[in-house]
TrEMBL record:
GO terms for biological process: signal transduction. This is Diguanylate cyclase. Residues 434-564 form the GGDEF domain. One of its GO terms (molecular function) is catalytic activity. It holds the Pfam family GGDEF. It comes from Thauera phenylacetica B4P. The lineage of its organism: Bacteria, Pseudomonadati, Pseudomonadota, Betaproteobacteria, Rhodocyclales. Residues 339-391 form the HAMP domain. InterPro entries: DGC-Regulatory_Protein (IPR052163), GGDEF_dom (IPR000160), HAMP_dom (IPR003660), Nucleotide_cyclase (IPR029787), Rev_trsase/Diguanyl_cyclase (IPR043128), Sensor-like_sf (IPR029151), VP0354-like_sensor_dom (IPR048760). It comes from the Bacteria. Gene3D superfamilies: 3.30.70.270, 6.10.340.10, PAS domain.
Length: 564
């Protein structure tokens, strides 16, 4: 397949149109992706902060509850082995547990007797259940007991997050738990015991995160970065199973938050273990303003990157339509442009092809004011010049052709042309059984005219003789000059010898009239000889010989009679 200039130009223009449309679409998509990821980061960060704030509110709510319970007279009374007070306190413990399903245990633990549990309410399924008697245990060795006993009245202790291994009737065994505790102080300011609430961490977060969008993934880590909550439960509490599964190992960008160098960190993970399912996430360090062994919690929310970018899908389809539309427009414009450029070139090409042709030359775009217009004008000038030169050449060629077949002085056919016509006339006569006559005419005593009056006058005489011979014959006859003062006349289709003789007489009579040259009358005579086809010869040579002889006979007779 041959590609013309227009096709190639069209393809280049169309491809560049498509390329620029594609690049624009790609850039627009990248910019949109960045915008979406930034917006997702902002949303995730806000949600993480809201979540952290809710946790604080839950903790503050529970702290207030614990402080109220610690100040209640029943607490000190129960510590003094008042059974009625203990029962009343158990009833009070049950109230917040009924209100919040994440609270799975509230206890009053005495400072004496190795921290023996005095009042204990566990969650048993939905309902709070008082545990009493032998089921009560000594808890003095737990930090939440001895650390809390060291606090002043009104202060709240927050434990590290750990897996709950305390045996009891509550259903939170083996689940992540945290303890909040406050001391119960007597009138002298001596801590007599502690009130401890155990909170199911997952329960709290399940409640708090319930209204987050379904694709939000929750991450919680302790101050060292160990996962406490992770979308994959197998990765939580690694330290409890003798291995470290840490947030900064999964997301290197979070290291600064874990180290306390940054309060928050955004990440857009598309590398490492998230290469297949990249995430967009925001992490913050949430610090509790409490007496606690835990410096801060690392709280994070993440969304699959694919979900974030799903909002681009309609935009992508619009961009695809735009790219296709622009590409088609580009192809159309390219085709029109290519045609606009190549059409004048085709016109110029056709004009070149038509240069010497007789047909109508195509109109050149000379009126254009661009390079093509300049080229067309130059070409038109060139065409005119070459046309003129060609016409001149043609004129000269026809002149030369005429000269080659005619006598320069008289304008009559020369011998070559006469021979051709003779051959044609003879062929026609032979075919039609026709007749023709050949007449030789020779000027008498021409040499003396030349000698006496000069060659110029001699030439005028020869011109005059030729003109008069021509006036005496038909258009179908041919008169030719075949020698200095020798003429020959071909009379094809002559009806009879008498007709031919009449033509000869007519010529003689015409030449016998004096020639007036430069005011002088000059008498000229001619000698003539006739030959007839087929009687006197059947070919040109025989006929010429016959006519020549007849002419010499006539000349001899003429001289004998004193003619000329
Ligand atoms: N002016 C002129 N003279 C020519 C031309 N061609 C031939 N002649 C002359 O014509 C003359 C012909 O002479 P001849 O053949 O002897 O003819 P003539 O003198 O008529 O003699 P006869 O035919 O015997 O009467 C010569 O002197 C040539 O030089 C020509 O073109 N112009």
């Amino acid at each position: 397949m041959r590609f013309g200039l227009a096709s190639r130009l069209g393809i280049v223009l169309a491809l560049s149109g498509m390329l620029s449309a594609g690049i624009t679409a790609l850039q627009a998509q990248r910019a949109s992706e960045t915008l979406l990821v930034d917006s997702a980061h902002a949303e995730l960060l806000t949600s993480t902060r809201v979540l952290a704030r809710r946790i604080t509110l839950v903790r503050e709510d529970l702290s207030r509850t614990l402080l109220a319970l610690a100040r209640h007279p029943a607490a000190l009374a129960a510590l003094a082995d008042d059974a009625q007070a203990a029962t009343q306190l158990a009833t009070l413990f049950a109230l917040p547990m009924e209100a919040n399903r994440a609270y799975f245990q509230i206890r009053l633990i005495g400072a004496a007797d190795n921290g023996l549990e005095l009042v204990r309410v566990d969650r048993d399924g939905d309902a709070p259940l008082r545990v009493d008697g032998d089921a009560l245990q000594e808890k003095g060795h737990y930090p939440y007991v001895f650390d809390t006993l060291a606090l002043a009245a009104g202060e709240v202790y927050l434990s590290r997050v750990g897996i709950n291994r305390e045996r009891g009737s509550h259903s939170a065994l083996g689940r992540p738990a945290v303890q909040l505790a406050t001391p119960v102080v007597d009138a002298a300011g001596t801590p007599r015991g502690v009130i401890v609430a155990s909170v199911d961490l997952n329960g709290v977060f399940t409640l708090l995160a319930a209204d987050l969008p379904a694709d939000f993934q929750l991450y919680l880590a302790n101050s060292a970065g160990d996962y406490l909550i992770h979308p994959d439960p197998a990765r939580t509490f690694g330290f409890d199973k003798g291995r470290r599964v840490r947030v900064q190992d999964e997301f290197a960008a979070i290291q600064a938050v874990v180290d306390g160098r940054a309060g928050e960190s955004m990440l857009d993970s598309a590398i490492g273990e998230h290469a297949r399912a990249p995430l967009v996430a925001a992490f913050i360090a949430a610090r509790a303003q409490l007496r606690t062994d835990e410096g801060a919690f690392i709280l994070g929310l993440a969304r699959p990157r694919a979900n974030v970018l799903a909002e681009l899908d309609p935009l992508r389809s619009i961009m695809l339509q735009i790219v296709i539309g622009m590409s088609l427009t580009g192809i159309l414009i390219a085709a029109i442009l290519a045609r606009a450029i190549t059409h004048p070139i085709e016109v110029l090409g056709a004009a070149v092809q038509n240069f010497s042709g007789k047909g109508e030359a195509p109109a050149l775009p000379v009126e254009r004011q661009d390079e093509i217009g300049a080229l067309a004008r130059r070409f038109a000038e060139l065409r005119t010049q070459i046309g003129q030169q060609l016409a001149e050449l043609e004129h000269r060629r026809s002149e030369l052709e005429h000269l080659a077949r005619h006598d320069a002085l008289t304008g009559l056919p020369n011998r070559a042309l006469f021979d051709d016509r003779m051959a044609v006339a003879l062929a026609a006569a032979r075919r039609d059984d026709g007749r023709l006559a050949l007449l030789f005419v020779d000027v008498d005593h021409f040499k003396p005219i030349n000698d006496r009056l000069g060659h110029v006058v001699g030439d005028r005489v020869l011109e005059g003789v030729a003109a008069r011979i021509r006036q005496c014959i038909r258009e179908s006859d041919t008169a030719a000059r075949v020698g200095g003062d020798e003429f020959v006349v071909l009379l094809p289709g002559v009806a009879s010898a008498a007709d031919a003789a009449r033509v000869a007489d007519k010529i003689r009579a015409a030449i016998d009239r004096p020639f007036v040259i430069d005011g002088h009358a000059l008498a000229v005579s001619v000698s003539m000889g006739l030959a007839h086809y087929p009687q006197d010869g059947t070919d040109a040579t025989a006929l010429a010989r016959h006519a020549d002889r007849a002419m010499y006979r006539d000349k001899a007779e003429g001289k004998a009679q004193g003619r000329g």
